[in-house]
């Protein structure tokens, strides 16, 4: 299934890397329409990030390559949504589980 896609990644990246540069590079990946990079944890050597990427038919291999080329690592893929529109999950449903 192609179409609109949202991918949420938990990423560690060296603290020397500019999050602006990272977002710019991810924004140039084929299919990417929007990127949100949020710092969730800081350390002397490593930043913990949540990266949300939206677009059409995003090339995940290229996303991974950008992150790895900057010395980062994808710790987990926390959410993937694919379809004609972005289907939001009510957070209350997760709390009730």
Automatic annotation (TrEMBL):
InterPro entries on file: DUF211, MTH889-like_dom_sf
Classification via Pfam families: DUF211 (PF02680)
Listed name of the protein: Uncharacterized protein
Record organism: Vulcanisaeta distributa (strain DSM 14429 / JCM 11212 / NBRC 100878 / IC-017)
């Amino acid at each position: 299934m192609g179409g609109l896609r949202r991918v949420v990644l938990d990423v560690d990246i060296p603290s020397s890397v500019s999050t602006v540069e990272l977002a710019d590079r991810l924004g140039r990946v084929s299919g990417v329409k929007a990127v949100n990079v949020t710092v969730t944890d800081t350390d002397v050597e490593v930043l913990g990030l949540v990266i949300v990427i939206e677009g059409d038919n995003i090339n995940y291999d290229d996303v991974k390559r950008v992150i790895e080329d900057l010395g980062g690592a994808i710790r987990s893929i926390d959410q993937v949504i694919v379809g004609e529109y972005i289907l939001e999950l009510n957070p209350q449903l997760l709390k009730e589980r």
